[in-house]
Amino acid sequence: MFSIFKRKRPQEPAAPEAAPAAPAAAETPPAGARVDAPATPVADTPATNAPATDASAADAAPAMPDVAGLQDSTLAAPDAPAGYVEPIAEPDVPLVPEVPVMGALPVAPEPEPVPAEPAPADQAPAAAAKKSWLSRLKQGLSRTGQSIGGLFVGVKVDEALFEDLESALIMADAGMEATGRLIAALRARVRKDRIEDAGQVKAALRDLLAEHLAPLEKSFPLGSVQPLVVMIAGVNGAGKTTSIGKLANTFQRQGASVLLAAGDTFRAAAREQLVEWGARNNVTVIAQDGGDPAAVAFDAVNAGRARQAGVVMIDTAGRLPTQLHLMEELKKIRRVIGKADPAAPHEVLLVIDGNTGQNAIAQIRAFDAAIGLTGLVVTKLDGTAKGGTLAAVAAGSQGVRPIPVYWIGVGEGLDDLQPFVAREFAAALVA
Ligand SMILES: Nc1nc2c(ncn2[C@@H]2O[C@H](COP(=O)(O)OP(=O)(O)OP(=O)(O)O)[C@@H](O)[C@H]2O)c(=O)[nH]1
Description:
It is found in: Cell membrane; Cytoplasm. The chain has 431 residues and is of the alpha/beta class.
C-alpha cells in the first residue's frame, strides 16, 4: 500500500534515496522554517525541464524536492508576506510525462480494486445505510421541509395555497427566479391535470422541483483521465478538507489510487488534518510547512503522474471572495497546475456550506469567475440548511452558472458525502 509522508521523522536519515543533485536534502532546515528561492532545481529531473536560470519557472516548480524536502519543508517559499503571493510569469516548462520526478518516493502498489456492485449479501446493509443518510438529509432540511410540506395539510387548493407556497420557497433560499418558475409550472400542472387534492399538489411540486434540479445532477468523471487532477476551493470552514478525506475514501473503494496535496499552507491544522487522514487511510499526502501552495500543487500533479495515481486532489486554504489577493493566489495555483499538466485541473470544485443561504450564490459567482468551476460540493445539509439554494443555482439566479452538484454532505462520518440525486433532494425538501 502507499507509504505516508509524515512530516517529522527525525530518527530517519534526511533523504536516504535522495537524488545526488539535490543539495536541499542535505541542507534541510528545521521543520517549519521558511526557505527562500529554490537553491537548485533538481538537475537530473527531466520532468520539469525548468531552466535553472528561469526564475519564474523556478517559482512555479521549486526544484521537485525529494521526499525529505517535501516532508521537512524544503520546498521553496517565496519570500513574501504571509497570505500574499507574487504573481508569476507563466513558466515555459516543456513536460515529459511519466518520469519519476519524485524519484525518492517509494512506489506503492495499486490498492485492491473493490467490486463496484456489492455482493447480494451486502445489499441489505447498503440499503439501510442509504435510508439512514436520506433520513438525515430529510431531517436536516426539515425546517424548510416542514414549512413547505406542512402547507398542504388540511387545506384547499386555492390561491392562498399558491401564495403561501411562494413565500415558503423564498424563505427556503430558492430565490425569486426559481420560485417564480416553480409556482408558474405548478399552477399550469394543477390546471392541466385538474388537481383538487392538496396532497397531489404536493406530489406535483416534488416532481417539478426534481425536474428543475435535474440539470445539476452529474456523475463525477472518475477514471476519465489518469490522473484526474481535482482542485478544491471554498471559504473558511466550508468543509473542504473533510470532504477531501471522504472523497479519497470513496475513490479508493471504487478502485482508484489517490494522492492528496495539502495546499492549505497557511493553516497548520488543515495540513495536519490531511496528513493524519492520509496516514490512517494509506493515502500519500504531499505537504510542506508554510510556503507556496502553488508549488505543493505542482509537485502533487507531477508525483501523481509519476506514480500513475488515479486521482490527485489538491486542497486549498479557505478564503473569502472579498480577499482579492487570496483570490489572485487561487488563480495562480490553477495556472501552475496547468504547467505540470496542460489539461489540468480537470475538475475545479467549490465546497459550499449548506447553511450559507443566498450568499452561496455570490460565492459561486466569485469563485467561478476566478478559477472556472466545474462542480459543487454542498456540505452540512444535516444541520440548519434550508436547501433551497440549489434551486436558485439551477435557475441561474443572479447570473450564476448552473454548475453541477457532484456531492452533498449530510454528516461528519466517512460515508456522509453522497452523490447529489435531484429526485432524492426534492423529496427531502418537500417532505
Ligand atoms: N455536520 C456536518 N459537519 C460537516 C460536514 N462537512 C464538514 N463538516 C464539519 O465542518 C467543519 C469544518 O470542516 P473542514 O473540512 O475543516 O473545513 P475547511 O473548509 O477545510 O476549513 P478551512 O481549512 O478552515 O477553510 C469540521 O468540523 C467538519 O467536521 C457535513 O456534511 N455535516
